Amino acid sequence: MAPNLHTEPTSGMDRTLEDAIKSATESRVRTVLLKICNENPVCREAVSKELLLVTTAEEGETVKNKKRVRQAYELCIHSEEEYNVEENELEGDLCQYHPGSRDYDFNHSKFDDFEPWRDGDPEDYEDDPDFADAFKWDCCGGNGVTDGCVVTKHQPDETKKTKLMRV
Ligand SMILES: [Zn+2]
Ligand SMILES: [Zn+2]
């Protein structure tokens, strides 16, 4: 029996599109998404459901029963993680970070063969995963691989956050 092309789970064309999305640059995907949202109300609605969060006015606000629209995902200023705004409000302890700064421990064995004239400034190795345990946090004394000593809510980076809009 000849294979029936119509019963294939995904057509070749769909797979090609998925591959194109996966390999496209972030800025290309953004440009395409903005264009589609501007041109097509149905797509605009679908993307809004994914990226926006609608809440009712907070207590104490003068305008009652007004809905607010905000981003559903934000970037945390402490952990630099993207988080789900609603989940963050409910859980309250999703963020774990070190409030201090890291200093290198020049007595650590990782620095045994370190020669500043050849290897440069030890501080430049702060973000090098190979040197993580040779740096100490001044907030808790933990090293670069120790979990954050403060557990709290994620906090939005106000410079990257869009203003609340009333609808
Ligand atoms: Zn700490
Ligand atoms: Zn965080």
From TrEMBL:
<protein>
    <submittedName>
        <fullName>Uncharacterized protein</fullName>
    </submittedName>
</protein>
